[in-house]
Design goal:
The structure is a homodimer.
Chain A: E1 4-7, H1 16-29, H2 37-46, H3 48-56, H4 65-76, H5 87-94, H6 106-114, E2 118-123, H7 127-137, E3 145-146, H8 147-150, H9 157-166, E4 174-178, H10 181-189, E5 193-197, E6 218-220, H11 223-229
Parallel strand pairs in A: 1-2, 1-4, 2-3, 4-5, 5-6
């Protein structure tokens, strides 16, 4: 019997791509910059895995995702001809990741799931970022778990295990919910149950995972569909 | 300007004494045990500071409060003539601390404060215990901070600082809210603002702190009074 649901956030619950593009345009567009804002969001996100890999490999000590996002931002700005931005603009721009909008089904789906399960994000995003997304999108978390409390980044096993331990649950009483098979495979390898949610438009129309590439316990079209399947 | 409020929980938000007495009576009374249940709660709580001091001093590695509560329970049971209890009863009894009731003003006070501030418990209680208390009493936390994410126990400075860092706030943007002057003094010593809430009946009628014994930024009779004073 599953008692706790753990959620991936970027891509699974929130549409980071169009939200970051919108925020970047709002902040940089007024400075006269004109770039492809979706391409800008993609480039920034493109640095995401390499940045975390520095930590996962032990080459860099753990620092929270806001710090990695800032480092990654400074790496891509010159590619878009954006140089000499004031510190305040850089800081504001980095907070774009705190202002992401949820996919349509998420708030209603989580509200239903909360009646039956304990809920927490198990994201690579830091606590303050998760708090801002929760306030913005009405995510009714019981607690904020994930990379910052584990001191490492998914898909390292420690991150999933730290979440199970925080909730005092054996891994097989916990289910990871994500739109990414790699995340689910890592969770399953240490005993968690898994649910895949289709987000086919994550990187633009028909670019995301419409279906899992591995065997999972549940396959859902949305969080409402998942709630239905779980009897919540 | 204060942006985040951190709350002590045991005594400040919840009435641990009558709640633990009630739970102990419910679980042990049916086994024919007859002891003074408030005295039982007091004895259990009496082991609280010594148990944490083992960790704070470095003599014991950090373990979550549920583990310390269990160790403390086994220490006091013989004093009440309670021996040879089955493992399941001990486990159930230890969860008494997950079923504490809030003082009357708390849910309404937190709901008002949440409109204006980020809110988190900064308690020595572990995450799963805080989650259960929040569900039971409608505490609308933004995140669960405190001892478990810090790996040490209040009043060690690390616990307050870990909370400020998790919320990306300088200490002077954070306020510790507690019914215990010692907790507030420790928070103030590293730069947090402080609010004292009177809980005169914590250990029984007229036994708790009706007023702070140190200088604080706010002195309140309840969380509703505090909300009023903070314009929330």
């Amino acid at each position: 019997m599953v008692e706790a649901l753990f959620f991936d956030v970027f891509g699974t619950l929130v549409d980071w791509r169009t939200s970051v593009a919108r925020e970047a345009e709002k902040i940089l567009g007024s400075r006269g910059a004109s770039v492809g804002w979706l391409a800008f969001a993609d480039a920034w996100r493109g640095q995401y895995q390499p940045g975390m890999e520095e930590v996962r490999s032990g080459r860099q000590p753990f620092s929270k995702l806001d710090v990695l996002h800032r480092r990654n931002l400074e790496r891509i700005l010159p590619q878009f001809g954006l140089t000499d931005l004031p510190e305040e603009t850089l800081r504001e721009l980095n907070l774009a990741w705190h202002r992401l909008d949820a996919w349509n089904d998420v708030a209603a789906g989580l509200a239903r799931l909360k009646q039956k399960f304990q809920l927490a994000p198990v994201s690579n995003g830091n606590i303050s970022l998760m708090v801002d997304l929760a306030r913005r999108n009405n995510f009714p978390w019981d607690a904020i778990l994930g990379a910052e409390i584990a001191g490492d980044y998914k898909p390292k096993p420690r991150v999933y295990l730290a979440a199970c331990e925080a909730f005092d649950r054996a891994p097989d009483r916990c289910m990871m919910v994500a739109a990414h098979s790699k995340d689910l495979a890592a969770a399953a390898s240490i005993g968690l149950r898994t649910a895949h949610v289709a987000r086919p438009d994550e990187y633009g129309p028909n670019t995301g995972e419409g279906a899992p590439t591995i065997k999972v316990d549940y396959t859902a079209k949305s969080l409402l569909d998942l709630a239905e399947q779980l009897g919540a």
